[in-house]
């Protein structure tokens, strides 16, 4: 597929693949770097288009501009699914689909986008997709990890060990063959879930009002749970360097020294309590320590047990069903209370795939 024809998920997936290819033997580095530049340009174009559509949607919401429905159009035409997903009709139909009625959204897709719908893979409205990407872009942790969208389980290889290159004098015996050991990280996705009870009044909300309600309830909590899962994965990973040192003004420095050369854009992930404890240690032997974090950006996560130093580009998250949340609506089990149970879930697997891409600095247990 041409890069100019890719959507955002395809661009992110290909970027992750190309970055992995950079570390393979015989890779054409110039060609791969050129492709990375093209992919990033395409991503910028898509993000610019997203911002434009958001502005248009906000104009409709704020200024009361009437959105024509398909029934008002005198001439029906087959449109691209992407265009259809940006209509008010589709937003309203998708809200009903979440509630359990998929007839309207399937009919819209079949009649207006010329596509048949099989299974439960109903595309989200573009404004929902935009909101997911915008919310995640505002997360300092989620915005830095690599995201792929591969259905099912898959493995990522990494170089566990390798003998280095050596100088070879002409006419002497050939150098020994490289001893290369490749290990693998297996991605097996699990659901992050949250559920709530709502009243019939909430279920009576229509279209965007109903979808916004769900995102307000689920979006932040699921994103926060994924951030915590990333921190837990880094701390537990065998690829993380363990550094025994006090949580003090030198902790970041020791963590930085344990990183591999591939960790080119390191940050510090730390709880606010440990951040305050380190900042309070302003002096060492009478010499003021101006920046105990060595100029690195500090990202807060209160589940971090020590000082994490590393490059989040070495963390990969796979979303087999995409990054949009899936919902299950149960209007039976709590019917006697006039309540409806809504379960929100996101299928994801996340792992550190770069040896010594992170260091965990903490005192000896």
- In whole angstroms, the N-to-C terminal distance is 52 Å
As an assembly, this protein is: single chain
Main sheet properties: 5 strands, mixed
Unreliably modeled segments? 64-79
- What is the count of DSSP helices, taking H or I runs of 4+ residues? 10
Radius of gyration: 25 Å
Helix content percent band: 25-40%
Shape: globular
- Strand portion, in percent? 15-25%
Would you count the extended β strands for me? 14
Structural class: alpha+beta
Quick check: average pLDDT?
Answer: 79
SSE string: HHHHHHEEEEHHEHEHEEEEEEEE
Task: Describe the secondary structure blueprint for this structure.
Blueprint: H1 8-21, H2 29-63, H3 81-84, H4 88-99, H5 103-112, H6 126-137, E1 146-148, E2 154-162, E3 180-187, E4 190-199, H7 200-203, H8 207-236, E5 241-244, H9 251-257, E6 267-270, H10 272-280, E7 283-284, E8 287-288, E9 298-300, E10 307-310, E11 315-318, E12 326-330, E13 339-352, E14 358-362
Helix pairs in contact: 1-2, 4-5, 4-8, 6-8
């Amino acid at each position: 597929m041409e890069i100019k024809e890719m959507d955002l998920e395809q661009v992110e997936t290909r970027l992750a693949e190309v970055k992995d290819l950079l570390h393979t033997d015989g890779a054409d580095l110039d060609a791969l770097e050129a492709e990375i530049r093209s992919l990033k340009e395409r991503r910028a174009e898509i993000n610019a288009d997203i911002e434009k559509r958001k502005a248009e949607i906000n104009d409709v919401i704020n200024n009361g501009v009437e959105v024509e429905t398909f029934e008002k159009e005198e001439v029906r035409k087959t449109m691209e699914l992407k265009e259809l997903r940006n209509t008010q009709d589709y937003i309203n139909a998708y809200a009903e689909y979440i509630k359990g009625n998929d007839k309207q959204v399937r009919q819209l897709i079949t009649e207006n986008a010329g596509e048949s719908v099989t299974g439960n893979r109903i595309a989200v409205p573009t404004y929902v997709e935009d909101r997911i990407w915008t919310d995640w872009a505002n997360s300092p942790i989620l915005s830095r990890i690599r995201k792929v969208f591969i259905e099912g389980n898959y493995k990522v290889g990494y170089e566990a060990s390798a003998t280095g290159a050596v100088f070879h004098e002409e006419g002497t015996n050939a150098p020994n063959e490289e001893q290369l050991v490749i290990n693998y990280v297996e991605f097996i996705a699990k659901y992050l879930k949250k559920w709530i009870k709502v009243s019939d009044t909430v279920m009576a909300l229509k279209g965007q009002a109903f979808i916004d309600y769900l995102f307000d309830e689920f979006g932040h909590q699921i994103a926060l749970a994924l951030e915590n899962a990333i921190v837990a994965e880094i701390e537990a990973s065998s690829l993380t360097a363990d550094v025994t040192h006090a949580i003090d003004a030198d902790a970041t420095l020791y963590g930085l020294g344990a990183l591999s050369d591939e960790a080119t854009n390191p940050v510090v992930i730390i709880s606010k309590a440990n951040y305050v404890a380190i900042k309070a240690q302003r002096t060492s032997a009478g010499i003021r320590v101006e920046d105990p974090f060595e100029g690195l950006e500090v990202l807060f996560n209160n589940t971090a047990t020590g000082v994490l130093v590393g490059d989040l580009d070495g963390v990969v998250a796979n979303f087999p069903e995409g990054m949009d949340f899936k919902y299950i609506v149960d209007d039976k089990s709590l019917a006697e209370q006039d309540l409806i149970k809504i379960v929100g879930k996101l299928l994801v697997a996340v792992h550190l795939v770069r040896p010594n891409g992170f260091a965990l600095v903490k005192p000896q247990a």
